[in-house]
Design brief:
Two copies of one chain form a homodimer.
Chain A lengths: L14 E10 L6 H13 L4 E8 L4 E8 L2 H8 L2 H14 E16 L1
Antiparallel strand pairs in A: 1-3, 1-4, 2-3
Helix pairs in contact in A: 1-3
Chain lengths: 110, 110
Amino acid sequence: MKRPSKFATTPEPPYYAVIFTSLRTDADDGYARVAERMVELATGQPGFLGVESVRDAEGFGITVSYWSSTGAIAHWKAHAEHVAAQEMGMRTWYAHYELRVARVERAYAR
Amino acid sequence: MKRPSKFATTPEPPYYAVIFTSLRTDADDGYARVAERMVELATGQPGFLGVESVRDAEGFGITVSYWSSTGAIAHWKAHAEHVAAQEMGMRTWYAHYELRVARVERAYAR
């Protein structure tokens, strides 16, 4: 079966996951454009393995990005354009969010 | 600020996350009822910490459940009613899924 494209293709564990759970505000202010740009930018970062993302009609979303190491995550977190986006996120786009960094130990697919 | 209820309230790390990414088929066959029952059942399991779940209009979804230990995850995986639901999931409800077990090492909220 062809793998649907919303799934990330990740290597054998171990690797890392950043689980970002968020509730959007009603404020737009360029959100969609920046969100798209962040995915494009992340994809080019060292150690980026993939991303899976979904948001429902009420604005609640989960984005999981996968990385080869905690160093790769720290590098991406500190990227200047990403820092600016994080600040807009905190100030304007998200009513609440949770961010968790986790080490993937086992993985299955079907 | 009142925490929106779709977010899980988890303790300080470390704890475990089960990241379940899935694409639904068009088959219904009791899916919504069983999905709701599984959340209800999981909530009562030893070591259950919380769950966050979202599915978009195209049937792509991410559910992250949080657990105190890998033993708690194994215990839930082997629960008879859950095993039956897993089999229906593989056979009927999911066109594709990915399941990852990860150890949460750091967490932030805002």
